[in-house]
Amino acid sequence: MKRFGRICMVEAKKWNIVFFLIPLLLVACATSPLGRRQIVLLSEGKMNEMGAQSFEELKAKTPIERDPKINQYVQCVVAPIMEAAKGRVSVQKWEVVVFKDPSANAFALPGGKIGVHTGILPVAKTQAQLAAVLGHEVGHVMAQHGNERVSQGQLASILLGAADVAVKDMSDTQKKLLMTGLGVGVQFGALLPFGRTQESEADLIGLDLMAKAGFDPGESVELWKNMAAASGGKSPPEWMSTHPSSDSRIANLRSHIPEHRADYLRVVQSGRVPRCTLN
């Protein structure tokens, strides 16, 4: 009877967690710009607060590029991307900072914060290639990917906690093996694939933004060729990474470029094509 009572208590704890999660997931459902169902647990205000705080910390500890030519070039590329994003993201004013950092990277944070590393400029060799980078990063903000990733982490912790309760009666060795297996399962079965999904989604949102901003969408493929060359083929296997392989990205972009060609040509015909240069 004592054994039965302990089992019932474990089952009750498990079901309490399940019943807690069901209404939480129903309330937290959202839809990405491409129609994918999402779980977002944090408010927009909270995400914006976190984004602003992170950005201020970065500005405090990372050297900022003051060269007016570089800053004007980046702003020239960013401006039409922001115009194309109007009405599709709640951000009214974006803050753009160029950081002196040799890594080929850029990022956008909730709340309208954009950081561009000087190291991306030799890789994104044209204005359109830089637009592909920035459109991709803004796409992450538009699709609430930051909120989604934080929410996924919170849910993973809850689920692993539930599993921990469920295996209380196992031996320490059995419990350790099971929890390790569950941790690996969550990482490679859920969190990493979701990361790749978000990256591919941001690629396609960025493709749409750059075309509507007047940048040749075909240059997105050239960007990823350059990124692959810059990495020297040292990236991990795709199944172990939060990012798709360069080959997967290029194939995905190529298949969707025709959808955005008309938007780009309309901007070309209107004479509003950006002319951004570092010279």
Structure commentary:
The chain is built from 8 helices and 5 strands. By secondary structure, it is mainly alpha-helical. Strand 4 (106-109) and strand 5 (113-117) form a beta hairpin. The longest helix is centred in the C-terminal third of the chain and has 41 residues, at 172-212. The model is unreliable at 1-27 and 182-192 (pLDDT under 50).
Strand share of the residues?
A: 5-15%
Largest sheet: 3 strands, mixed
* DSSP E strands, number: 5
Strand order of the largest sheet: 3-5-4
- What class would the helix/strand composition place it in? mainly alpha
In total, how many domains does the architecture comprise?
1
Taking the alpha carbons of the first and last residues, their distance comes to: 82 Å
Helix and strand run: HEEHHEEEHHHHH
Rg = 22 Å
Helix fraction, binned, reads: 55-70%
Helix run count: 8
Query: How would you sum up the global shape?
Result: globular
In short:
With 279 residues, this protein is mainly α. The protein has helices spanning 2-27, 44-61, 68-85, 127-142, 145-166, 172-212, 219-231, 246-270, and strands spanning 29-31, 37-39, 95-99, 106-109, 113-117.
